[in-house]
Write a structure and sequence with these properties.
Oligomer: single chain
Strand content: 15-25%
CATH superfamily of the largest domain: Type I PLP-dependent aspartate aminotransferase-like (Major domain)
Number of domains: 2
């Protein structure tokens, strides 16, 4: 890391940037070239070719992400799921066993329960709040433990300190999806996590205009993952790299505003008579509020809640909104709202959703950068239709 800066805001702007600048350009240009002159390389994975993640835009981002996550190395990929799947496949192989959090993002849940099992990899779901139960789930062939910082969509906050300790004491690779918290609110590597995944589509980019993913960890882990990614073909395009690099520069100011706005909105929703329950770690009644206060720099921009009346009432509410947008992503400048059972978790069966606590009427809200008072007024109007 450059000794001239250590703060996260400085890292976001300056880490990884070419010095001296390319032809004097303050902003790193887009290197829209798949192929480069061959000047001799140690091996196949070092050849300068876009699929091998050796393009200058990819290299700049990798260094910036590593500095941001406080890890030795990092790697960008074509999506969050590309980063997650490639990381899991670099750690696990046929005959191995995985411990995974019992409430996962729908795409990850499907990967673990359907795709990994087809490759001969088994799994056991664990309760992120009950560390005493994890040892019972261990097997001789258990190789890794996988959790999310704030779960999607219920915003549970597992005992991440205990997860990292448990992994170290049992020689497991600890893996965490940190998308909902972002590196501004938590840097899991500081607690001892081996691999940290982020959906670059969400907070890191922040503008709802690309799909990307990142994974950060030790140099050895990332090199192994890169070799797997080289074969699977999930390298990120230079133009998407440029947009992600641009978005990262404002990550800190965006996330801090979103946290501030979300806390106000969560408080408003919790007091509205048409709202049955609100899940937000910044509220005192959240079951892991004390842990969130201790470990998080901010409570995040995500809120989940249920309106009285179930799925039909939820749909009426969302269709009545004028400022918030009904769309299934998160972390961008626009406030987005969705019913997970009908969108991002629709790939799960109703039984699987019920087992995870995802009701048909659950609403997931990603707070954007609009004026907070405008958003509250929008919700107030829409709740009048429930």
């Amino acid at each position: 890391m450059n000794e001239a800066f250590s703060g996260v805001e400085s890292k976001l702007i300056h880490a990884g940037e070419p010095r001296p600048q390319v032809d004097g350009a303050v902003v790193t240009p887009i290197f829209q070239s798949s192929t480069y002159l061959y000047e001799g390389t140690p091996g196949y994975h070092d050849v300068r070719y876009i699929r091998l993640s050796t393009n200058p835009n990819q290299r700049v981002l990798n260094e910036k992400i590593a500095a941001l996550e406080n890890t030795e190395a990092a790697l960008v990929a074509t999506s969050g799921m590309a980063a997650i799947s490639t990381s899991l496949l670099s750690v696990l192989s046929a005959g191995d066993h995985l411990l995974a959090l019992d409430c996962l993002y729908g795409g990850t849940h499907g990967l673990v329960t359907k795709d990994l099992t087809q490759l001969g990899i088994t799994y056991t779901f664990i309760d992120g709040q009950n560390s005493d139960s994890w040892r019972e789930a261990l097997r001789q062939n258990t190789k890794a433990i996988y959790v999310e910082t704030l779960t999607n969509p219920l915003l549970q906050f597992p005992d991440v300190e205990a997860v990292a300790r448990f992994a170290k004491s049992n020689n497991l690779v600890s893996m965490i999806d940190n998308t909902f918290a972002s590196p501004i609110n938590l840097r899991p590597a500081d607690f001892g996590f081996d691999l940290v995944m982020e959906s670059g589509t969400k907070y890191l980019n922040g503008h709802n205009d690309i799909v990307a993913g990142t994974v950060a960890g030790s140099s050895d882990h990332i090199l192994h993952i890169k070799h797997k990614l080289d074969h699977l073909g999930g390298s990120l395009d230079p133009h998407a790299c440029f947009l992600l690099q641009r978005g990262l520069k404002t990550l800190a100011v965006r996330v801090r505003y979103q946290c501030e706005s979300a806390l106000r909105i969560a408080g408003y929703l919790s007091e509205h008579p048409a709202v049955a329950r609100v899940m937000y770690p910044g509220l005192p009644d959240h079951p892991q509020h004390d842990r969130a206060q201790k470990l998080l720099s901010g409570f995040g921009g995500m809120i989940s809640f249920e309106v009285a009346g179930g799925a039909e009432a939820a749909d009426r509410f969302m269709r009545s909104l004028q400022v918030a947008t009904l769309a299934p992503s998160l972390g961008g400048v626009e406030t987005l709202i969705v019913r997970p059972a009908a969108a991002v978790h629709s790939g799960l069966s109703k039984e699987e959703r019920d087992a995870s606590g995802i009701s048909d009427g659950l609403i997931r809200l990603s707070v954007g950068l609009e004026t907070t008072d405008d958003l509250i007024a929008d919700f107030d109007r829409a709740l009048g239709s429930v």
